[in-house]
Design goal:
441 residues, alpha/beta, Aminopeptidase, Alpha-Beta Plaits, 8-stranded mixed beta sheet, 41% helix, 24% strand, binds 2-acetamido-2-deoxy-beta-D-glucopyranose, binds zinc ion, manganese, metal-binding, Bact_exopeptidase_dim_dom, Amidohydrolase
């Protein structure tokens, strides 16, 4: 808050001191508040809109899973080449990181994920997935198109950028921890803030949704092998039955949240996988159970993980079985930076009207964007897609999932505006710090 007050003050001062800036310059104090609508108008131009739609459909037809986004990144690189935007490739196997602006600090990042899901598309349309068993059912095809749209807008206004916008095309959001790999590749070393968005079919088009603080849960996956001793199903005394042990494990896991968690601290433990047995008359040797757990703080995530391990091994032992528990993946909660929330609110409000910028409740879903937020102040928001004219859209990960392509300009303009105005404000803050420094001298 204090920071923002200073920013407004500095913008005011700059406005007074630099009357020579052309009046339509996006980066004069008067023009700053016009950037969002200026960028949106640019994004809505038929050439830019059709270009984004074309990119999105091309990627939709050829969905690729995490760390296999080779054709997708080839397309991205070809477009960045045409725009004359420098980039680093490969980053985290299949990722691309582009740079628009001065090439100097401050750096602000905008991010799109690129991967598809291992599922069969059930929507019959002209640009249906051409790859059996793979589909862009989470909108990451649209995310890529919007980030390229933002690249085009920012390139158009490149001379006026007060620093560098880092375009992060990230692989493997759904599985495999792509964000973590991008960080490990040291691709975001000097970045001061990062923004990300997700399309949301159940919220109205033309509106955006977010909140400061925790917005999506952290958590992880678990998988346990419960081993007993197989044998004849009619002679149970000669076997050690892992099916009964696994059943008790599943029931006991329910008690972690119902009996151990603070009712005001939202948590989930779900067993979503149960594999064992194959015959009516055979007790199997072993059973596999697995699932996911979610919570809003890193501490609670670690606590759940420990209790899941203890409950599975303990309860299996009660039934004379052995259990080994694995935690193949875990992820932190998505926590939005407070100052960036103010920034988002202002920029999105200027673009859409403040009544279209809505606060939302946190949800138990997760995003690997949270890995960026552990290292860099970050902000994640949702872009509504619901338009009553088209009827009810299906949720993410449904085989009937569809994109309302009308929102592509909005997403690209939001990306570009959040980044461009952030750079300006951050630059002002640097001036402010330098000013203080000189005063002290
Ligand atoms: C919904 O779709 C109709 C028809 O394409 C369009 O005129 C209208 O502006 C859309 N509404 C929103 C909020 O996008
Ligand atoms: C459990 O592990 C112990 C120690 O390795 C082993 O002696 C025992 O046979 C195992 N029990 C089952 C049911 O696998
Ligand atoms: Zn998804
Ligand atoms: Zn997604």
């Amino acid at each position: 808050m204090v920071f923002l007050k200073w920013v407004s003050f500095i913008l005011f001062v700059l406005g007074q001191c630099v009357p020579t800036l052309p009046s339509d310059s996006s980066f004069s104090s008067n023009g700053l508040s016009q950037i969002p609508s200026k960028f949106l108008n640019f994004a809505k131009k038929p050439e830019l809109f059709d270009w984004m739609v074309g990119i999105r459909r091309k990627i939709h037809e050829n969905p690729e899973l995490g760390f296999e986004e080779f054709e997708t990144n080839k397309l991205i690189r070809a477009e960045l080449d045409k725009l004359g935007i420098n980039y680093r490739y490969p980053v985290a196997t299949t990722g691309v990181v582009g740079y628009v602006g001065t090439g100097k600090p401050p750096f602000v990042a905008i991010r799109a994920d690129m991967d598809a899901l291992a599922m069969q598309e059930m929507v019959d349309w002209e640009h249906k997935s051409k790859i059996p068993g793979k589909m862009h059912a989470c909108g990451h095809d649209a995310h890529v198109a919007m980030l390229l749209g933002a690249a085009k807008i920012l390139k158009e206004y490149q001379k006026e950028l007060q620093g560098t916008v880092v375009l992060v095309f990230q692989p493997a959001e759904e599985e495999g921890g792509g964000a973590e790999k991008v960080l490990e590749a040291e691709a975001l070393e000097d970045v001061d803030a990062i923004f990300g968005l997700h399309v949301e079919p159940r919220l109205p088009a033309g509106e955006v949704f977010s909140r400061p603080g925790p917005i999506l849960a952290g958590g992880g996956y678990f998988e346990a092998l419960i081993s007993g001793k197989g044998g004849h199903a009619a002679i149970p005394q000669r076997s050690i039955d892992p099916i009964l042990a696994a059943s008790n494990v599943i029931l006991s896991l329910q008690h972690i949240v119902s009996r151990e968690a603070d009712p005001l601290d939202s948590q989930v433990v779900t067993v979503s996988k149960f594999q064992g047995g194959g015959a009516f008359n055979v007790i199997p040797d072993s059973v596999t159970v697995g699932g996911t757990f979610r919570a809003f703080t890193k501490e609670t995530v670690m606590q759940l993980r420990q209790r899941i391990d203890e409950v599975i091994t303990g309860q299996a032992a009660v039934q004379r079985c052995n259990a080994s528990v694995n935690f193949p993946e875990s992820f932190p909660p998505t926590i939005n930076h407070e100052v960036l929330h103010e920034h988002f609110h202002k920029v999105a409000g200027e673009m859409l009207g403040i009544h279209k910028v809505k606060d939302m409740k946190p949800t138990m879903g997760s995003e690997d964007f949270s890995f960026f937020q552990e290292e860099i102040p970050g902000y994640f928001f949702f872009l509504g897609m619901q338009n009553q004219t088209f009827g009810q859209l299906q949720p993410e990960h449904s085989p009937h999932f569809q994109i309302n392509e009308d929102v592509l300009p909005l997403g690209s303009a939001l990306h570009a505006s959040l980044a461009a105005t952030y750079l300006f404000e951050f630059q002002s803050q640097l001036h402010l710090q330098q000013g203080n420094f000189h005063d002290e001298l």
